Amino acid sequence: MFKFLFPFFAENTIRQSSVIRGDVKFKGSVKINGLLEGSLAVNPTDSVFVAQKGVLRSDNLNLDTLVVKGAVYAKHIKVRHLIVRKGGEVHGRIEAHSLTIDPSARYDGHVTLAAPSLQVAEGASASVAKERLETMLRT
Prior knowledge:
The chain contains one helix and twelve strands. The chain has one domain (3-138). It is globular, with a radius of gyration of 16 Å. By secondary structure, it is mostly beta strands. The two termini are 17 Å apart.
């Protein structure tokens, strides 16, 4: 089951009237109801959910999954999955492997959709890399 489909069960929550400024690191998924300004780091498999009244402001975001119902302002957003729900807005340069934007959501910036990069072990041949790519494309 995908964690990002169930953002209400986040291990960490920034409450609605909270304001956090600075560099923040969380273990586990994060739900933002308040304001977070600064860098945000989470584990590679965890998701970030910006709720309807939540605001996330950062220079660079590098996340696995980002679900937005509130507002995200960032110079560069690099994510595996980006989902912008009804009423959500994203401002900034987006680089994503998958992107879902509801009709009533907004984004402002540049979007690049990129296939996941291949991690080729040192000493692996080009044929191994090609085989991995073909396997990925079949799934």
